[in-house]
Task: inverse folding
């Protein structure tokens, strides 16, 4: 059967449905966090496993890309966070300087 | 094999939404200053991710849109890796490992970053600052910085599943 919704549309619907369920659950006195934790942990493990199968089945196609993969992974781990942190800190100091100046 | 990855991805995004829905009361109770600073941190996190993605893509000759999407993961490796692997296995690995390392670096180096950079170092935690790295942020940054981190984490968790497909399909 052909899919009616695109992947992105299904992602948005999943997120919106999740938020609605969360809001409804938050109005109940019962603590549902444990059940959500279990569901989330199981699906993350399954997701990572299935991703490993997808990647593993095509790992040979990586070939000479191994250096690029390692370098890019390290760069993506460090650079975005550091850049964002410095930009945010500049703004924090600017706003605090402005607040002190006006008081 | 691939359809299972899709299904699990939808469940993960759905449960992230449930977490956001469950914590809306705590967020509503947070002060205006915390909320505005948390939102500013979110904006700087997105700007930092996009700029860094562009900087990384050019010298390593990576597909620009996928590299920016990988950087936009903001530490959410369980979403970024599987999502990008649907377009390119190599970018899936980069998205997964890079964002996993970002979470680990935040856990290990946040005290040092807080000392040398300041309050803005919360941005390093990205989407993880509402769950896994919240403890270390609150411990070394204080409760107010922890709440700002939580606002940032919640908002990033909400917008990443929208931003990433949008960037990939630009």
Result:
């Amino acid at each position: 059967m052909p899919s009616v919704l695109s992947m992105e549309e299904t992602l948005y619907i999943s997120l919106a449905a999740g938020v609605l369920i969360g809001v409804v659950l938050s109005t109940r006195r019962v603590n549902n966090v444990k059940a959500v934790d279990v569901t989330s942990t199981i699906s993350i493990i399954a997701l990572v496993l299935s991703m490993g199968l997808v990647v593993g089945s095509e790992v040979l196609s990586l070939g000479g890309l191994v250096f690029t993969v390692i370098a890019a992974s390290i760069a993506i781990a460090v650079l975005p966070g550091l850049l964002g942190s410095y930009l945010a800190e500049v703004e924090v100091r600017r706003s605090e300087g402005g607040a002190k100046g006006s008081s | 094999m691939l359809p299972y990855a899709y299904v699990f991805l939808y469940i993960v995004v759905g449960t992230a939404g449930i977490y956001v829905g469950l914590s809306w009361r705590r967020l509503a109770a947070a002060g205006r200053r915390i909320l505005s600073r948390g939102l500013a941190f979110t904006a700087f996190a997105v700007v930092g991710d996009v700029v860094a993605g562009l900087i990384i893509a050019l010298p390593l000759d990576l597909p620009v849109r996928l590299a920016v999407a990988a950087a936009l993961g903001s530490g959410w490796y369980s979403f970024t890796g599987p999502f990008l692997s649907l377009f390119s296995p190599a970018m899936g690995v980069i998205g997964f490992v890079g964002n996993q390392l970002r979470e680990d670096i935040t856990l290990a180096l946040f005290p040092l970053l807080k000392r040398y950079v300041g309050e803005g170092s919360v941005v390093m935690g990205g989407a993880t600052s509402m769950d896994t790295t919240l403890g270390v942020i609150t411990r070394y940054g204080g409760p107010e910085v922890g709440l700002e981190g939580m606002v940032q984490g919640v908002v990033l968790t909400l917008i990443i599943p929208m931003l990433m497909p949008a960037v990939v399909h630009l």
